[in-house]
Amino acid sequence: MVVKTFMDMDQDSEDEKQQYLPLALHLASEFFLRNPNKDVRLLVACCLADIFRIYAPEAPYTSHDKLKDIFLFITRQLKGLEDTKSPQFNRYFYLLENLAWVKSYNICFELEDCNEIFIQLFRTLFSVINNSHNQKVQMHMLDLMSSIIMEGDGVTQELLDSILINLIPAHKNLNKQAFDLAKVLLKRTVQTIEPCIANFFNQVLVLGKSSVSDLSEHVFDLIQELFAIDPHLLLSVMPQLEFKLKSNDGEERLAVVRLLAKLFGSKDSDLATQNRPLWQCFLGRFNDIHVPVRLESVKFASHCLMNHPDLAKDLTEYLKVRSHDPEEAIRHDVIVTIITAGKRDLSLVNDQLLGFVRERTLDKRWRVRKEAMMGLAQLYKKYCLHAEAGKDAAEKVSWIKDKLLHIYYQNSIDDKLLVEKIFAQYLVPHNLETEERMKCLYYLYASLDPNAVKALNEMWKCQNMLRSHVRELLDLHKQPTSEANSAAMFGKLMTIAKNLPDPGKAQDFVKKFNQVLGDDEKLRSQLELLISPTCSCKQADVCVREIARKLANPKQPTNPFLEMVKFLLERIAPVHIDSEAISALVKLMNKSIEGTADDEEEGVSPDTAIRAGLELLKVLSFTHPTSFHSAETYESLLQCLRMEDDKVAEAAIQIFRNTGHKIETDLPQIRSTLIPILHQKAKRGTPHQAKQAVHCIHAIFSNKEVQLAQIFEPLSRSLNADVPEQLITPLVSLGHISMLAPDQFASPMKSVVANFIVKDLLMNDRSTGEKNGKLWSPDEEVSPEVLAKVQAIKLLVRWLLGMKNNQSKSANSTLRLLSAMLVSEGDLTEQKRISKSDMSRLRLAAGSAIMKLAQEPCYHEIITPEQFQLCALVINDECYQVRQIFAQKLHKALVKLLLPLEYMAIFALCAKDPVKERRAHARQCLLKNISIRREYIKQNPMANEKLLSLLPEYVVPYMIHLLAHDPDFTKPQDVDQLRDVKECLWFMLEVLMTKNENNSHAFMKKMAENIKLTRDAQSPDEPKANEKLYTVCDVALCVINSKSALCNADSPKDPVLPTKFFTQPEKDFCNDRNYISEETRVLLLTGKPKPTGVLGTVNKPLSATGRRPYIRTTGSETGSNISVNSELSSSAGNRSREQSSDISETGVSENDENPVRIISVTPAKTEPVKNKEINSDQATQGNSTERGKKRPATASGTENIHQKPEEKNVDETGPSLAAKTRRGRPPKPEPQGATAKNEETSKPPVRGRKRAAVSQESPGSLEAGNAKAPKQQDTAKKPAAAQRQIDLQR
């Protein structure tokens, strides 16, 4: 009744207020406040709340202590709000509503310790709030608390803690409603509470007073939550965070970075634009010295790119730096960041960001490379294959397919396997239906760049090779057990293991797999089906799953053995190509021919699609020939043969050649149609078509002799040198016919060779070449007569290669002819009617022909040392393209082990090449060749019997002999010439001495010492020749001794010297003389600078009319990706090959005759390095003072340029120079009145043809070289051209 009375009373009833005052005072007595009955306490609290309402604004209680007790009592009663199902809940709600409406707690502001009451109230309300409360309860609580905050003098730290504690993640998860209540409360009171919050964070963050609050350790969590609630709550806090970002404590910086990453990266945050100084300071943490800080910064970038694309520009530069971070994990996360954003939306990542991922595909760490490759593959599949974002997005990432396939060129087997996996899953998904899969492959192949096409072809070739290895292994299982069989099986297993990841472990797994194959016949049959030519893609899938199921072990969740076998099966399984697939490809090509395909929609022209389709089928005809055998396929190919496109017809012929072995028996209709077409192509097609037609007839027809005779006879009778443009195809056909069927055509060909090829064609110049001074012309500008002569030289070689014997001495005559061609610089008749570019073509053809004949043992034996040296000097030809093509041919033959080891010595001469790219290419060729030979010796135990022809170290005597006969080496005591010899020696020895395998350093030293005990077999009785040989030996010994401390050990075996180049050592002959003085030795090793300055060598007079000199580039060997360090090698600064300077554009065409050439040198640039890392010391130490000099350099595209003979010499005080003489033959008279000028002071005598001039600085030398001293030889009578007539019938 008392409660009802007070509830009904209002503030205006003064009489009642006075009447009930004693009751009001009585209700505040200890009896009621401490009453044990809960309901009584609740009713008393309701009465007291009404009393405060009625007597407001003054309370009837004057004692501060009594007021405190009353409010603490009321606060305790509010705990009853927790149970909404309680019968008394409505009274508790009334109590809360009354207090909130009247703002009764504001009375407490007058109390000294009011903070205790407020803290208790806040804690109570936050503890009782739960999800069963309705919105009214929450609103009254908010009203009650916000009035205390907003109308008080300030918020104490303890009261602030009672609010903020609900934002901490642990509490937030326990009571979500309390978090929401605190969140709304802070939003409502933001203006009032912000200074209190700022003070709290200032105390903790700036002053470091963690004791001010129990929440000090949660400051960063609180900042995050407060920012999400209302950024205005932290207006004064953000500058404090900038201060913390610069803390000396790495862990503290990490915590701040984590916090700011969330603040900047959250979806609706505009903090980066509102607070630019803080944003810039945060970006600076991308370069933090502390690895975890950089890692956290990079992880943030992904969310930022996705939520704030406008900040991508700011992030790009920092991600660029981090993509080269020394830490693998950071480089990895940069890729993850960019790819994650790209997969969300390609527009979020710009081309520069994708470029960073592209770079990392060549990272030194496999984990980083893999992430980059897989990320790009996923982007390609999403945007190109599935076209999820339209054509623009597909165009943006169209480069990915090429880049991924380029990685197949890397040496790592892991890279190759990943490319194969990516191709099968992302570029051309193997799980697509056949038609869709082949359409994908067809247009992919048509849109790839040439290098990617080569890589894809190589991938199929490698897979096919591995299939053949497995097939051979299964064949060995069918043979009876024997020691030879076991040895062959072991070799085959080692070969297979090399094609799997981690070959060391793979060997054990492959052996285990081999044992399983031997024991399980069913497994063997499954594997045989998998690699059989008739296996379809669906069958392959079944076989792989079946074999994996048999080898799986349920008790072993991670089975490395099974993983290795899966790698093997994935490589050999034909998951893309079978007969059905080839048929689908042919149909696609037919649609392109008919014009009904979607070529334009796929971004390729119909002509490109047809040509690429034929090339694709041609490649597949090598790897899957059986899949082509159908009338429908061959009919389509016949249709291609009739097309006007020469490349298409050529590819079609080659497909017939590779796949048509059963045409004659199974498809007579195709045979009868094909024969006349092949005949026509062999007689009147392009040279390439003629070659393929002859080989096709030889490969697929049983009566090939008759067929070839029908081509040979009319062609041989109709040869006419007066119409050279009609000669090229017949010469190609005749050459290949004589090579393929020597027994039938060798004899009739001999008269053709003697009477027509040599006398009528090669020894006559019917037309006059264009005298434009160019050293090289494009193929289409070469005169038909020269093209015919080049084919004539090739015909001679093919004819000899077919005979494979020298009984008629035809090979000797041919070699003399080729040598004469080289000596005469390509102008065999010496009538000066032939142009310089045509002479270059003929020199290249002659040098390549000698090299081709050397691949046949019977002809290699008769090639004299002089002829070998002439051939070798082609690699120093004055024409860049001649050097380039010759080096490529040389490498190709050496790497297949077709050429004798002595030909590898030719690469030593590349040290003189004026173009750094050529030197870098030669070094790569040497590395590859040496690696292949050493690997071959390891894998083939029988190879030990042929060490003289295989062991790379045995190239040293050949190299020494070759350099002793180098026409540039005329004065054994000339320091400049010795320096050149030393650089050539070191060019080869540096690669050989990378490792001291089997004490090879001592072995090479022993070889050089042994050579000094012999004589030069080429001219044993000539003192000067032997002196030059011994001098080169001493230079070699000097280099070996200076570069290796291990060369003084005993040689493992006594080296054998080639008798073709060195005589047998005489018993009493002792040669302990030093052929180079101590002073010269020091000069060679220390590289004392030459006296002439660089600028003084720019405009020296030419030593031959119209000849432009070559200036050696001082650029680094950036073409080489492999660093070779030998023992006790000089510092990186000691090799000029490691310097880098680029030449600017000269503004003239490469082969112009009279350019006005302005050479300017730009500052040094360094090409991107595969594993380039920022924040790591990459500077090369020990640079000599000479390295800083700028030098004129010749770029590869500008070196074949002749200067004007009228050009005046800038250096008027320079010495006058003698005219240059030619190597090995009398000089030609100079045109009267011509003033020869050259950048070098002289050139050595030329033998065979003009050499590319040696630069002022040879590779690897320490000094800036000046021009060589003039040399002059006595002139002799020029032999008449008639004396060069060669009779091949002798």
UniProtKB/TrEMBL annotation:
<feature type="compositionally biased region" description="Low complexity">
    <location>
        <begin position="1120"/>
        <end position="1131"/>
    </location>
</feature>
<keyword id="KW-0539">Nucleus</keyword>
<dbReference type="GO" id="GO:0000785">
    <property type="term" value="C:chromatin"/>
</dbReference>
<keyword id="KW-0132">Cell division</keyword>
<keyword id="KW-0131">Cell cycle</keyword>
<keyword id="KW-0498">Mitosis</keyword>
<dbReference type="GO" id="GO:0006281">
    <property type="term" value="P:DNA repair"/>
</dbReference>
<dbReference type="InterPro" id="IPR016024">
    <property type="entry name" value="ARM-type_fold"/>
</dbReference>
<protein>
    <submittedName>
        <fullName>PDS5 cohesin associated factor A</fullName>
    </submittedName>
</protein>
<feature type="region of interest" description="Disordered">
    <location>
        <begin position="1096"/>
        <end position="1290"/>
    </location>
</feature>
<dbReference type="InterPro" id="IPR011989">
    <property type="entry name" value="ARM-like"/>
</dbReference>
<dbReference type="Pfam" id="PF20168">
    <property type="entry name" value="PDS5"/>
</dbReference>
<keyword id="KW-0677">Repeat</keyword>
<dbReference type="GO" id="GO:0051301">
    <property type="term" value="P:cell division"/>
</dbReference>
<feature type="compositionally biased region" description="Polar residues">
    <location>
        <begin position="1176"/>
        <end position="1185"/>
    </location>
</feature>
<dbReference type="InterPro" id="IPR039776">
    <property type="entry name" value="Pds5"/>
</dbReference>
<dbReference type="GO" id="GO:0007064">
    <property type="term" value="P:mitotic sister chromatid cohesion"/>
</dbReference>
<feature type="compositionally biased region" description="Basic and acidic residues">
    <location>
        <begin position="1201"/>
        <end position="1211"/>
    </location>
</feature>
<dbReference type="GO" id="GO:0005634">
    <property type="term" value="C:nucleus"/>
</dbReference>
